[in-house]
Amino acid sequence: MAYSYLPVDRDQLFLLPASMREWLPEDHLAWFVIDVVDRVDTSAFDALHPNDGAGRPAYDPKMLLALLLYAYAEGMFSSRRIERLCRSDVAYRVICANHSPDHTAIARFRADHEQAVKGVFIDVLVLCAAAGVTSLGTIAIDGTKIAAAASLRANRTRGAVRAELERLRAAIDVLLAEAMSADAAEDRVFGQARGDELPPELADPRSRARRLEQALAELAAMDAAAPAPKGAPKAEEMARAGRRVAGRRPKGAHAALARAEADLEAVRTNIEAARAAREARRTAAGNYVGRPPTREAGRLEAAQRRLDEARAAAERATTEARVNVTDPQSRVMPSQHGWLQGYNAQAAVDANQVVIACSVTNEGNDSPQFLPMMQAVAANLEEVGADASGSVLLADAGYWSEVNATAPGPDRLIATMKSHRQREMSRSLGTTEGPPPPGASAADAMEHRLRTHEGASTYAARSHTVEPVFAGHKDNRGFRRFSRRGLDAVSSEWSLINTTHNLRKLWRSNPGFVPPLG
């Protein structure tokens, strides 16, 4: 019995030339990305290419930018996988106009234009504002930890880095000597026909040495940027007055060293004052003895001993400081799934889940990032012709500080404690109304606002505003690790991720709406 199937003839020739316009539907994301890139200012991308026509023609930056945006929008971050898709996937072939850029060309374009890519974020944000996709009533700020392209096992102490650097320098010297002797022998036999290039094995040791030198520089920068121990000015003031600081000794090695130095100075000041007073009394009374000098010597020796112990502990702590030799600017950070080697990626998201501003830091604490993010929100909204003064910024307890709560800028609601504790406090104290009581501290005033009906309902929007954006990045598109290394590089990649997020929001809201940039 014969079956009625559509014919499968893979040798059938096209009667007319094929048109790429027929390969994809008109509302496909690839066409949308192409239309958006045509309206983006790419002069910064063109600046790196010579206009004299010398050499092999380069790929059009608009084409490579569209390729990169579409790949990241589809959760494709590997340049090698993008290269393969340019040969096998219809959408990628349409974007590349049937060109097949090599993975090195894609990777170099991403690296060479990391600053220009950040500018595309603003251009896409302008499109979102023009299309009416943005909603600036509330803007939630939050951070998420993203793994670096480095392993936790690649962290080394200062001594280990120096030892490895010395070993590599010695190996490079040996390779250079061998290369020079081999080149000299080949020149005698073959003349200049063979050239005088160094062996390719030399490339890896040199690049490894550069990374190790960068790791040592990062350790030195960390030492220079270490904050002064808390209470250090007070301890110095008390030391000059001959009084030791009361209370428990600090836990940190460097803070304990500062305390020990202040204690020794206080003992010396106290002894000198006692000796001066004793001498004055002896002169006046003639037979005044006072405290035996041996006791003073014992106090001085004990203070000196504590200082020596604290100095040794601080030296051990400095020696044991670790840095990652693969990506020296990344840091070990806590996450929901344990410790990771990575960065702290920040985002400010509006009520429609459009990313208004984004940044990356290698500091694990969120609190110092609030004011820079608030300033970035105001600057970006000014670029798109909007005003942030009418917005309310929302942030969780990780951003709480009195400075963040009282700094000039838009209105804000920052939780002063964890969510479950905030709810327990609201249940125990009940809701409230009106403005905070006069003379209330910054924390009390914020807690009062969070217990009002308006404040509680406004702050409740925080979690379902910003957290789904991070979930979309990580779970839907699989972006859990940066592909590049270094703070500038990962900042550019994070900007690219959020740019493509906004592109998808704009496409889904109205695929046919692509207004010109004015």
What does this structure look like?
With 518 residues, this protein is α/β, with parallel strands linked by helices. The protein has 19 helices and eight strands. Strands 1, 4, 5, 6, 7 and 8 form a six-stranded mixed sheet that branches. α7 packs parallel to α19 (487-509) and α8 runs antiparallel to α9 (203-224). The longest helix is centred in the middle third of the chain and has 33 residues, at 158-190.
Provide a concise account of the structure shown.
This protein has helices at 29-38, 43-46, 61-73, 79-88, 90-95, 103-112, 114-130, 158-190, 203-224, 232-240, 253-285, 293-320, 370-383, 402-406, 419-429, 442-450, 453-459, 463-476, 487-509; strands at 138-147, 155-157, 322-324, 331-335, 338-350, 355-361, 392-395, 411-414. By secondary structure, the protein is an alpha/beta fold. Strands 1, 4, 5, 6, 7 and 8 form a 6-stranded mixed beta sheet that branches.
Structural class: alpha/beta
Summed up, the helix count is: 19
Average of the residue pLDDT scores: 80
- Taken as a percent bin, the fraction of beta residues is 5-15%
Classify the oligomer. Answer: single chain
Task: Give, in order, the helices and strands.
Answer: HHHHHHHEEHHHHHEEEEHEHEHHHHH
End-to-end separation:
66 Å
Largest sheet: 6 strands, mixed
Count of spatially separate domains: 4
Shape: extended
Query: Rg from C-alpha positions?
Result: 32 Å
Residues in helices, as a percent range: 40-55%
Number of strands: 8
Provide the low-confidence segments as ranges. 193-203
